[in-house]
Amino acid sequence: MTQEAEKKATGAKVGKAAAAAKAVAAVQKPVEKPVVKKTAASGEAHSAKPEAKKAPVPVKPEAKKPTAKKDASAGQVKVTQVVGSIARRSDQQATLIGLGLNKRHRSRVLEDTPSVRGMIYKVRHLVKVEKA
Predict the structure, then answer these.
(1) Of 78, 74, 62, 68, nearest to 110 (Cα)?
(2) How far apart are CA 75 and CA 127, in angstroms?
(3) Where residue 105 sits, what CATH number does that domain have?
């Protein structure tokens, strides 16, 4: 309640200290106790919390599958910067640095992954892309 509403209800003036005490009491909430249930069979009280957790079942490591060796150039692209990054947006400059390029006519051979392809697409007007 506001002070004005209390004045109307009680017909008396409410002091600052009394109003502050009521405000503090309104903010403080009582602490809730945990719910306790009794079982019909044993009559013992059980808390709502679950019992101790069971130990995890050990997982057997799977045998390593033989992998075929890939060609060194398979899945790689050669990226060459052909235009300078002066007067370009800062995110484009950061993308060039992320690709390992920062000056014209510098090249890098990178893995052909979706993240690298996305970076190349962002600066596609500044670079030349070839299969490695």
Answers:
(1) 78
(2) 19
(3) 3.30.1390.20
| CA gap 90, 64 in Å, rounded | 45
Residue 42 lies in a domain: no
Question: How many structural domains does the chain have?
Answer: 1
Helix (H) / strand (E) element for 108: namely strand 107-111
Residue 128: strand, helix, or coil: strand
Structure tokens at 56: 């995890």
Q: Terminus-to-terminus CA distance in the chain, angstroms?
A: 76
Closest by Cα among 78, 114, 119 to 99: 119
Whether 19 maps to a domain, the answer reads no
- State whether residue 131 is helix, strand or coil: strand
Per-residue pLDDT tens digits for 3-18: 666 655 655 555 666 6
84 is a domain residue: yes
* Residue 87: domain span: 76-131
Residue 98 CA to residue 86 CA, distance in Å, equals 16
Tens digits of residue pLDDT in 59-87: 777 766 666 555 556 799 999 999 999 99
How many other β-carbons are positioned within 10 Å of the β-carbon of residue 102? Answer: 12
